[in-house]
Structure formats: structure tokens, C-alpha cells
């Protein structure tokens, strides 16, 4: 596999892109992994991205996918989260600041 850095537009994160060396994939699972970008500690405006797309609604996959789409990718295929404060709620722009009650992504893998 060939690793290369993608240069994001202003305001976008720099992610690691792992692509197949020959530009094609014979194995679907290998292709899926090869065309993924893992974003550690995804953040917006210096705050971790909240695990819910809207306040306490549409959590995990919908919020992770919206983040991936904001980075020019299509879908989130893997994610992890932890309790952290503050977090930024992507769907409605709110900030969660409640101790031990906010969940932010620790990593998101996009395709």
C-alpha cells in the first residue's frame, strides 16, 4: 500500500489516505481498507466532534458520516468515542459542556 498526504482546503483537516499502489482493487475488503482515511481526535473550531449529530439525537454513525462528508469523503465506516468536554454538535452547532455527559469521537475512519 502507498501512503500519501492529502492537502485539504482551508478549514479542513489533513488526513492520512491509504490507497492501492496500482489504483485498482481486486479484493473488495482490501479495497475498502485501502481507500479509507482515519482521523484521530476529529475536531471543529478546536472542539472534539460530538458523537450525536443533533443534541442527544442521531448519535454515532450519522454524526461520524456527517463529519466524513465535511471532509470530502462519503461515509464513516468505523469510529470510537469517549467522554470529553467540550464537544461540538455538528447538526445544530451547539456546544456540549456538561462534565461527564458529553461524548466526543476519539477517531473516525472515513471512505
The fraction of residues assigned to DSSP E strands is 35-45%
Number of strands: 11
N→C terminal distance? 16 Å
Main sheet record:
5 strands, antiparallel
Number of domains: 1
Mean of residue pLDDT? 81
Q: Would you identify the regions where 5 or more consecutive residues have pLDDT less than 50?
A: 1-28
Number of helices: 2
Q: So what's the overall shape?
A: globular
Give short descriptive properties of this protein.
alpha+beta; 111 residues; disordered N terminus; single chain
How would you describe what is shown here?
This protein has helices at residues 28-34, 61-70; strands spanning 2-5, 16-19, 36-40, 43-44, 47-49, 52-54, 57-59, 76-83, 87-88, 95-96, 103-110. Mean pLDDT is 81; it is low at 1-28. The relative contact order is 0.22. It has one domain. The protein has a 5-stranded antiparallel sheet. Strands 4-5-9-10 form a 4-stranded mixed sheet. It contains 2 helices and 11 strands. By secondary structure, it is of the alpha+beta class. 15% of the residues lie in helices and 40% in strands. The two termini are 16 Å apart.
In short:
By secondary structure, the protein is an alpha+beta fold. It has helices at 28-34, 61-70, and strands spanning 2-5, 16-19, 36-40, 43-44, 47-49, 52-54, 57-59, 76-83, 87-88, 95-96, 103-110.
Question: Which secondary structure elements does this structure contain, and how are they paired or packed?
Answer:
Layout: E1 2-5, E2 16-19, H1 28-34, E3 36-40, E4 43-44, E5 47-49, E6 52-54, E7 57-59, H2 61-70, E8 76-83, E9 87-88, E10 95-96, E11 103-110
